[in-house]
Every structure is written in C-alpha cells, then in structure tokens.
Amino acid sequence: MTAPVGMMNWVKLLSLGLIWGASFMFISVALRDLGPLTIVAGRVGLGAIVLLVIVQLKGIGLPDWRNNSGQRVWAAALAMGFFSSAMPFALLSWGQKYVASGFAGVCMAVVPLFVLPLAHFLVPGERLTLQRGISFLVGFAGVVVLIGLDAFKLIGSDFEALARVACLGAALCYAFGAIITRLCPKTDMLSLSAAALLSATVMILPFALVLEGVPQMPSALSLAAILYLGLLPTALAQVLLVQVIRDAGPSFMSLVNYQLPVWSVLFGVVLLNEILPPQLYVSLALILGGLLLSKKRRRAIIAT
Fold this sequence. Notes:
Layout: H1 7-30, H2 36-57, H3 68-95, H4 101-107, H5 111-122, H6 130-147, H7 159-183, H8 189-212, H9 220-248, H10 250-253, H11 256-271, H12 278-295
Helix pairs in contact: 1-4, 1-9, 1-11, 2-3, 2-8, 2-9, 3-7, 3-8, 4-11, 5-6, 5-7, 6-12
Keywords: Membrane, Transmembrane, Transmembrane helix
Transmembrane segments: 42-61, 73-92, 98-122, 134-155, 161-180, 192-211, 223-245, 252-272, 278-294
Subcellular location: Membrane
C-alpha cells in the first residue's frame, strides 16, 4: 500500500534537497581555512552531539549493545558511519579542493544508479530487470562523460582527475550505505542515526588530528560553514529524513536525488562564480534520464 504523501512531506522533501544541495557550496567555503578531514570531523562531531541530545531528551537513548539484537544494530551503525558519513564526507571534502562544488553535487545523482546492481546481489526482491539495466547503462554513460576519459590517465599532479574519481567514490559509498541501512534490523531510526554519527566521529577524528593537527581558529565565514554542515545537512536532515520515510515511504523520499545536482550547480555558479565544463550538463541529462527510467515501478532504496 502506498503511504499518503501530504503537503508537509513535500515541504520537507524540498527542504532536504535545498539543505543537501547547498552543503557542497559550504564545503568549498570551509576549505579556505580548514583541511578536508578537519571539516569532516567537525560536521559529524557536531551532528552527533545534536542527535545524542535529541535521543536523550526523547528518552530513546542509543541501541543497547548488551543483547544480540542491539549488537547487530551497532554493527550496522558502524558500517553506516563509515559508508554514509566518514568515508564519503572525506572523499567529497578532499575532492572539492580541485573540482567545483557543482561537479560534486552532480555526482550525488549517481547514487541510486549505483544502488541498482548492488541491490540485485544483496537485497532480496530487488532484481536487476531489463528496464533497470538499461537505466543503469544510460546513467553510467553520464558518469563517463562527467569524469572524462582523462580521469583514467592519472599521471603526475593531475589532482583534478583524481578528485573526480574521489567524488564518484563518495557516491559509491553512499550506495553501500543505503544497502546497509535497508538491511539493518528494525530499530528506532533516530537512535540508529545518532549511533551512526557517533561511530563516524570516532573513526574520523583521530585521522584528522594526526594528519592535519589541531586546527587554528578559522575565519567567521569558515566557522559558519562548519556550523551549517553540522547542524543542517548532518543533524537536522537526519531528523527530516526519518519523518518523511515514516510518513510517505522511501520511494517518495528518493525524489530528493533529482534536486541535489540542480541546487549544487545553481549555488556554485551564482554564489561562488564557478565555471562548470560544458560536458557537465550533458552528463547531468544522461544521469537524470537513467534515474527516470529506474524510477518507474521501482521500490527505491536511498542513501542518507
């Protein structure tokens, strides 16, 4: 049975697209004063603190690790922390040192296409039909156009080409995170989100301190960017995500993937004066075309 949507869920969905789409611009701003790992540690740490406070105030708490069910949930939270936060955030933050924020945003539209072949092998009932296979091939053609053939000729100091691959790697991480979230034992989603962000913080913080050291006080603009990244696309977005999935279902939630590249390109061009390569728009059309094909009669799995 299809869950009712309602006007408020449309508002929340549009809000999520705007919040996540703007995050690529704020990463570019934060990179002016801070290292990529420091940015990741700051946003997941702040997001974890906010969600931990929320679950305590609501009397939910973290999953109980003392029983088998809780241990399985914590195992999923650890994997989600790595694949949905720590690793993709690090890849995106490093990649955006060398590519435009709009490019990174377009890469996120690839996530549902990566999910298709993964779900075929890992999720019961998610078969890779002919229609889904065609949608994957169309979207993959967009990926090839997006990163360019020079990305496979990584020589010397061609960090831009490597950064393109890093952004696609982040999308692949999100796809794995989506599969893990789908297969996670049933539990309170807020509690699971808090555990995942806490796990991501524990993973990334030591690397940030060892490789980049204790950061100096950044500029007010970079500090504001970190606050935005931690409070909105990392913490608040998790809460909105849970509400939309509960009220309208995951298939409706997957519509957010169509918004992210549009917002990221818009913010990058208008506010950061980024000059985007012409092939980006061709690749965007192919990727969104693949998404439209996969959307028809498809029970979507989404990344957070």
